Amino acid sequence: MKPTRRKFLSQSTAAAAATPAVGLGGSTAFSQASAAGSLAEENAKKGTTDWQLTRVRINEGKFRTSLIEGYVSHQSIRAGEKLDFFISTKPERKFTIDVYRLGFYEGKGGRHMTQLGPFEGKAQAVPEMKPENRLRECEWEATTSLEIPADWPSGVYLGKLTTIPESPSEPYWQSYTIWVVRDDRPADVIVGVSDNTWQAYNQWPVAESLYTDPRGAHAPGVAVSFDRPYGKYTQITQQPLSIGSGEFLLWEFQIAFWLEQQGYDVSYVSNVDLLEAKSISRGKVFVSVAHDEYWDVKQFHAVDEAIRGGLNVLWLCGNSVFIDSPFAPSSSGEPNRIISRRGCFGELRGDEIESYARIFDTLKSTAPDERKIMGVRSVVPFNGGGDWTCRNGDHWVFEGAGMENGESIPGLVGWEHHGEPDPDREGMETLAEGKVWAGGKREGKYTSVIFPGPKDNFVFNASTVFWNCGLSQPPGIEVPYSHFSRPHGPDERVQRITKNLLDRAIAGKGA
Ligand SMILES: [Fe+2]
What is the pLDDT of residues 115-162, one digit of tens each? Predict the structure, then answer.
């Protein structure tokens, strides 16, 4: 019989699970129905930098720490719902789970919400790889569960796992779990994390990302499960202390930190929430961030519907909406816990066909042209590094940014981008355009655009994964380096352009 999520490791941990966690942050209740101002109150609470990991050891292969690792039952969860934790320690050690909400918090970046445990840890089995689709799906026993308290605002949350040494001569070890707390209230800004893509690139336990099939890096039919820990991120950057957090702490946290510093009214969603348009149409502007590559086609249709309904959208990202990756339920029947590569968005054409044929083998176009909702699309070469060069300095987007035509923000474009503007889109304007250099030598071209929606709304595409690196640099977050170039970190021009876009969207002034 398969273990189920509701089966707990021991009576002692079950007892702990039955005790609702209590937030540490004070008495201000956060109402799910409350609007602007709540996050300002939240960010006035006592912050800490202790959300960061201190001690991580990759001890199994190149990506994994078996000393302590785990995953949670939901990519996205509401207050009042129960989040299960599935944790393994090898060797067996007692451990704790410290829960943090990430935000600004006077520059500290996180708030300690609660501590769970200590628990008795045990080693849980690494699942066999399914030969038909290379899936590695854990079916671990739940360690504990947490009912998300009503006063926890929407946000990105980390569960910091820490072993308790058996003797003074032994160090402690750590890793993260990560999830989104969502709500359903109207909000000015809705930020969508790119967790499908985190999972697509997750190699845990050995080499089981969506890129490691012997048939080729972009083979169709391969699948990955959210029921497994996130291993150390495996390309572009070497940051073992982000292990367990997907790509959030690499190039996504920067925008959450900055938005909350600026006092914007933000609500957060996961890719899985985008299956329904109402998850984002309750906002004034939806923001896709960083590396939002893997989408279920239902996400595409939901965003398309929201744009047609008047939602403003900022694509502060690169290589987004590129791979058609339908959600599927887990083996135990939990919905939307597996994604697989079915095909890609958009028609293949021109020299791209030859490139795709060589790179992708049998991958086919299976979903609509992503330019319908993004204006631009992934182009060959997919990656590279470049400068973000202004081509339309008189546009309101650049107001107060002091950028003239031809002026560049060094290194802001990378490691993936968008180009080839939709020729059929009326009213589309190019804002920035220039070269990237893939592998430091193969020339490519990116294009940043803006176009009007049908109801006095607009869609902006920054066309770079690294855009958010220009907004802020929270504690412990490093600037990435790829294709022999890198962005410079916070830049007043990136901040002003982003503020212009957000403020115009929130004011409903249109393109
Ligand atoms: Fe990508």
Answer: 999 999 999 999 999 999 999 999 999 999 999 999 999 999 999 999
Q: With beta carbons less than 8 A apart as the criterion, state whether 197 and 295 touch.
A: no
Cα 292 to ligand 1 centre (Å): 8
Q: Which CATH number fits domain 11-259: 3.40.430.10, 2.60.40.1930, 2.40.30.10, 3.50.50.60?
A: 2.60.40.1930
**Could you tell me the two tokens for 193?**
């994390």
Query: Is 0.85 surpassed by the pTM of this model?
Result: yes
Domain boundaries, the chain: 11-259, 276-322+370-507
Q: How close is the Cα of 271 to the center of ligand 1, in Å? A: 15
CB-CB contact of 372 with 366 (8 Å): no
CATH T-level assignment (fold) for domain 276-322+370-507? Rossmann fold (3.40.50)
Rounded CA-CA distance 315/320 in Å is 8
> Distance, CA 12 to ligand 1 centroid (Å)?
43
Alpha-carbon distances, residue 87 vs 126, 253, 304 (angstroms):
12, 24, 38
